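Worked example 3 (structure in, sequence out).
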């Protein structure tokens, strides 16, 4: 049931029948190794377009194809942009909130390179990497000294 005139409800209602429809989507994702992923998707595969748009009709212009590729090392480039933006933030709260995702984005390439055995991860066996651990300690001591 619908009002004959939406602006004058005193005109009464009329019975209206809307055509049935279904929207179908198909997607596929393929991983190449542990750091490259290709995604393809086709939304509204039968290219349904309503004859007229009403309250519960889908807002679609027909079939839509999307493709995407995710490369883990792209996070390394993105992390530099995040870090540069973070240097311009003066508020501590906002900076700390942004630091958490920045570390996650920066850490993704480190994990990928470690899985590819391109370097030995010092946090797995820290006592075998005394020089690296001493450098990290020195950085923390210098940071603590500069803050006090």
């Amino acid at each position: 049931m619908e009002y004959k005139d939406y602006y004058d409800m005193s005109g009464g209602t009329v019975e209206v029948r809307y055509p049935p429809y279904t929207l179908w989507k198909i997607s596929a994702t393929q991983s190449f190794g542990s750091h490259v992923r290709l995604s393809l998707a086709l939304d509204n595969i039968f290219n349904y377009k309503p004859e007229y748009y009403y309250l519960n009709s889908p807002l679609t212009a027909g079939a839509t194809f999307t493709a995407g590729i995710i490369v883990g090392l792209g996070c390394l480039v993105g992390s530099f942009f995040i870090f540069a933006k973070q240097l311009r933030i003066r508020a501590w709260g906002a900076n700390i909130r942004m630091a958490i995702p920045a570390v996650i984005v920066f850490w993704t390439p480190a994990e990928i390179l470690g899985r590819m055995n391109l370097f030995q991860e010092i946090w797995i066996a820290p006592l075998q990497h005394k020089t690296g651990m001493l450098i990290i300690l020195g950085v923390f001591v210098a940071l603590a000294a500069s803050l006090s």
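Notes: The longest strand covers residues 25-32. The two ends are 73 Å apart (CA to CA).
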